[in-house]
Amino acid sequence: MILEVNDLCVDYVSPQGIARAVDLVNFSLDAGEFLSIVGESGCGKTTLLFSIAQLLSPPAELVSGSVTFKGENLVTLDKSSLRAVRWRDFSVVMQSAMNALNPVLTIRAQFVDVMHAHGQKNDVESDKRFAEVLRLVGIDAVHLRSYAHQLSGGMRQRVMIAMALLLSPDLIIMDEPTSALDVVAQRSLMVQIKELQEKLGFAVIFVTHDISLVSNFSDKLIVMYAGSVVEDGPTREIFEHPSHPYTQGLLSAFPSIHGPKVRLKGIPGSPPSLTQLPTGCPFHPRCAYAMESCSTVRPPVTPVGDVKVRCLLFENAEVHVGSD
Amino acid sequence: MDQIETESASEPILSIRNLSHHFPIGRKIRRAQLHAVDDINLDLYQGEIVALVGESGSGKSTLARLLARVYRPTGGEILFEGRNIATIRSRRDLLSYRSKIPLIFQDPFSSLNPVHTVGHGLLRTLKLHRPELSREERRDSAIATLESVGLIPASEVLNCYPYELSGGQRQRIGFAQAISCNPRLILADEPVSMLDVSVRIGLLNLMTDLRNSGISMLYITHDIASARYVADRLVVMYAGNIVETGPTESVLGNPTNPYTRLLLSAVPDPMVAVKATAGDIGDPPRVIDPGEGCRFRWRCPLAMETCSVVTPPLLPVSEGHEAACHVTMRSVGENIGA
Predict the structure, then answer these.
(1) Using CB atoms within 10 A of its CB, is residue A66 exposed (0-12), middle (13-18) or buried (19+)?
(2) CB distance A184–B280 less than 8 Å?
(3) Is A44:A227 a contact under the CB 8 Å cutoff?
(4) Chain B contact for A154, CB < 8 A?
(5) What is the pTM of this model?
(6) Does A210 contact B268 at a Cβ distance shorter than 8 Å?
(7) Quick check: A264 and B266 CB within 8 A?
(8) How is chain A split into domains, by residue range?
(9) CATH 3.90.550.10 given to domain A3-89+169-254
(10) Cβ-based contacts of A270 with chain B (< 8 Å)
(11) Cα angle for residues B193, B99, B106 (degrees, 5° grid)
(12) For chain B, which domains are there?
C-alpha cells in the first residue's frame, strides 16, 4: 500500500458559514493501481486531490484526518520535507495545461526547473532524460525548444504528463487532464496513460466528472457526492451493479451510441450548495428511493460485497443483494 | 403556430448555398487564408433537430455565427424564407431575423449579465422583439416561457440574479430567451457541454420537447452520443467541410467517411471493452490555405494518392445519406452496381 487516506475532512471557511468540501473520506491505494474519483462540479473531488497533495490554500483548511504516503503522514510534514517528496515521489497533472505551463518559458526551461528544484545538475544526462520522457508520451524532442502556445491542447497535456514522469514518481495525481480535449484526443490520451502506467508501474489517482471515460481504464472507483464518498469499490463491479441511487443515476444519464434509443431521465434537481447541505443523506432530495429516515439519519458506510456504499437502503444489506 | 404548420413541409427554413468563410491571417509577408468554413450546402427544415458534429477547429461555431449573422460570409449565401440574409439592411428586418433564428451560447456562466435579474434580460428581449405587447402581457409571456422550460416557480425565478441559479437553470434561461419570441430555428452552440452530467439529460429532453412543439434546432456538439439522443439528422464536419450527412441512425449504423468512424470509435462506452486505437492523437485539422485534396488525408488510415490531389465530393450512400471519401465510396459504388 503506498497511500492511505483516513477520515479526511476539509472545510472552506466563509462569512456565509463553513462548507465541508471533503467529509470523512477514507481510501487506500496500492502500488501500480489506477483509482478514479468521479463526481460533479462542486462535489469536492478537486479539494480532495489538493488535500492529498497538500496544495490547499486558505480559505480551505484541513480539519482532521491523515494522508499516509509511503509510511509518512503528509499532513504533518513541514514545507521543506514536503518539497523533497513532491514530484520525486508523487507528481500532479493539472486540469488546464495552458495555465499550468509557463507561457514565456520553453518546455526545456520548465523541465530544467524541476531538475534544479530537486538538486540535480543540468547536464547531458538530463537532456537525454528530457528527450526520453517526451518520447514516452509520443512527442518529438524538438519540442523541448517550443513554447506552450506552439503546441496543440493534446500535446500540452502530454508535455505535462512527461514533466510528471521526469523523476519517475510512484504516484501521479491527475485532475481532469482530458476535460479540455476533443473526443479523439481524449481517448488517445487515456490509452496512453494506461500504457505508460503498465510499462512504468506508477499508481494513478484520476479525477473526472465523466464516469464513462474511466470505465475501461481504472481498477478502483470512488463516487463522490456533496463532499462524501457515496460508493467505493472495484470499477467493473460498480459499472455492472451500481448500488447507490446516485451512481445508478449517473450511469443512466449517458446516452449510448449503441442499442435502442430510449428516453433517459437523468437525475432531477441539481447538486446542493455545500454551505446549505440537506440534513441526513445529502442526496435524499433528488433520490427516487428516499425514505423518511433519509432526511434525518446520515447513512453509515455499509459493505455490499466488495463495494462500500453510503446509503440507508443497504442497512439490511443481505435482503437487497440477495434479491438482485 | 397553425400558420407555420400549413406552410409546405418541403420548404426549408434556412438554405445554405456554397457557404464559405475565410479568415485572413498573417502580415504582409506571410499572408494566408484560414478556411474555417468551406463550400457548405445544407437545408434546415421545420420541426427537426440537426446535429452538427466535429472536433474543435472543424468550423462548427463559425457556421453558427454565420447563420446568426455575427459574421458576414466571404462566399456563398444563406437564404431565409427565400431571402439572402446578407441583403437585410433595415434594423427592423434584422431584429425580426434574429428573433426567428436565435443563438444560444455554450457557457451559461458568462452569457448572462450578472448585475441584472433574470426578468430584466427576458423582459427586455420581449420589449425589443415584440413591441406590440403591453407591460403586463410581457410579464405574463415571460412567466409562461419560464414555465415551459421547466423553471418553476416562474414568478420567483424572474426576480433571481444569475448567481442564485445553478448551471442547468441558467442554460434553461438561455433557452427561455430564445423561445420567448416564437423562433423558427434555434442555433444551439454546445448548450450542454459546460453542464454537470446529471442535469445534461434534462436539457436534452427539453430540446426534444421544443422540437416536438415545432421549433427546429441546429445542435452543435462534439459529443456524438448526445447528438444521437436528440437529433433527427447528423452533419459531420471536418476542417470546414461537411464530410458526411444523413439521418442519424443511417450515419451511425453505416459510417462511411473514415473521420466519422474515428469519431465513433473514440466515444467512451462503459459496456464495451476498449479497442486499441490506431495511434491517432487527435491533431487539429490543417485549415490554413489547405489547397486541393481531402483535408483528413494526414490522419486517414485509408489515404491513397488521389486523396492529396482531388477533393472528394459528397456522394449518396443511401436515402438522404451522403459521404465524401474516395476510398470508402468506391466500395459503396461497387455494392450498388452489384
Answers:
(1) middle
(2) yes
(3) yes
(4) yes
(5) 0.83
(6) yes
(7) no
(8) 3-89+169-254, 100-168
(9) no
(10) 166-169, 196, 198-199
(11) 10
(12) 2-102+183-337 (3.40.50.300)
